[in-house]
Amino acid sequence: MKLLKFEKVRDSRYLKNYELTYLNRAGREKKYEIVSRRDLKDETELGINPSGVSIVAYQGDKMLLLHEFRMGVNRSIYNLCAGMLEADETIEECIARELYEETGLKVRRIIDILHPSYAAVAISDTTTYIAFIEAEGDIESHASNNEEIDAKFYSKDQLKAMLETESFSSRAQVCAWFFAHS
To answer: Contact 37/116 with Cβ under 8 angstroms?
Structure first.
C-alpha cells in the first residue's frame, strides 16, 4: 500500500474531510475518505495528536455510565464520560473538567491513563486517551442545552443484565463487560 495523494475535500467547524488516494497491492489506485478533528497539513500528521479522553470511572463497587442521546444514531445509548482536550490543557485537567461538566463528580484518584488509541480507525485518525479513575461526590447535571445526559453508577449485576438488552458505544460495552465479569 502506497499513499499517492492526500487532499482536504471539506472543512467544517468540528470535522475535516480528507480524500486519500492509494496504490493498492494489485497496483491499482483506490480512493479512501476519512474525517479528522484536526486541520492536517499532510499525511505525516495523521493520528499524531490525541484529541480527547474517555473516562472509566468507579465509585466503590460501581461503575459510571452515561445514558445519553447521540445524534449520530438518533437514540440514547450507554457511553463513557468523554470529551475533547482544550488548547493548552493537560490530560489530567481535561479528565477533571469533563467528569465535572457531564456529572458534577470530582476526581478522587487517577488510577491509570492508557497510551492514546484510535477511536474509529476505519473512518478517522482520531486518537484519544482512556483514563481509569475513582470519582467522588454526588451526581448533578451540568450538561449544556445541546446534551441530554443521565449519569448513574451501576453494580456488576446491573451491568450484566444491561449488556443483554441495552445499546452501548463499543468502548463502554467492553469496559462494562470486563467490570461486570471481574
So the answer is: no
Starting at the edge strand that comes first in sequence, how are the strands of the sheet with 16-23 ordered? 2-11, 16-23, 29-36
Neighbouring CB atoms inside 10 A of 93's CB total 12
Residue 132 CA to its chain's centroid (Å)? 13
Contact partners, residue 62, CB within 8 Å, separation at least 6: 153, 154, 155
Confidence (pTM): 0.91
Are the beta carbons of 111 and 134 closer than 8 angstroms?
yes
Residues 87-112 have a mean pLDDT of 96
83 in Cβ contact with 94 (< 8 Å): yes
Reply yes or no on whether the pLDDT at 143 is more than 90: no
